[in-house]
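Give me structure tokens for this 70-residue protein.
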Amino acid sequence: PKWKMALVTGCVVWVMGLGLNPLVREPLSALLPAPVVALVATTVMVVLLTWIVMPNVTKLLRKWLFVDRA
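Here you go.
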């Protein structure tokens, strides 16, 4: 169901936001304007979510996410 994927995505985005803040935003905020920092942080998060994190999380939770109704 879509609500399960929404729940998983929300949790993953929240955790990644907490983790990326000290790794990406804080070091760059002293060097770049806030909109550029936001763009870089968003780009990093989207790339990680799309190609690394969500495929692995989906694979890990596939039995819960995709219940076989047959």
